[in-house]
Amino acid sequence: AQSVTQPDIHITVSEGASLELRCNYSYGATPYLFWYVQSPGQGLQLLLKYFSGDTLVQGIKGFEAEFKRSQSSFNLRKPSVHWSDAAEYFCAVGAGSGNTPLVFGKGTRLSVIA
Amino acid sequence: DAGVIQSPRHEVTEMGQEVTLRCKPISGHNSLFWYRQTMMRGLELLIYFNNNVPIDDSGMPEDRFSAKMPNASFSTLKIQPSEPRDSAVYFCASSLAGGRGEKLFFGSGTQLSVL
Question: Distance between CA B16 and CA A25 in Å, rounded?
């Protein structure tokens, strides 16, 4: 069965510090992997996605993620966090065909302190 | 493009009442998904449609939940009768099927509170 695990429920970082959010997945075929961000009271917005090629993918807002097949991981990183990055972050896996659903992790809430 | 439009944004109702949530997908998208978000369970898929046809409704929690997609531009999720445990944020998402790495576009959600 497909599943996504985000081990960290809540992370707090200082503004300007680096960030890494963890994501592990279980999927029976070649996975398509996504990171979404949800600001309070809003829907989910796509940060980046991976489906082939370079295992390090760049996204919006300065985020990047690295796919590691051997570890079944797709961790999200940012070198320097801004206060506006405070939000909920969701990792998701799916077939990527558009007509099948994504399976989401439970999310990691990011707090940013001065 | 207006994006995925959901209404209402907030719904407060009493236990036992019927609740109808509405969704207008992005024009041209042919797949539509209903998710429910709670603190305990995160984002759960309730049901999804391809070309207006329900494909998998195994995530619908009970017979009290039903969803329809009468045409390509409109879908409803109905709860009858509603219960306090149905309180959650309900998201609708749409996508264009047939591509590779196609992403879901989400609406802003409906915050449902059942008292």
Answer: 39
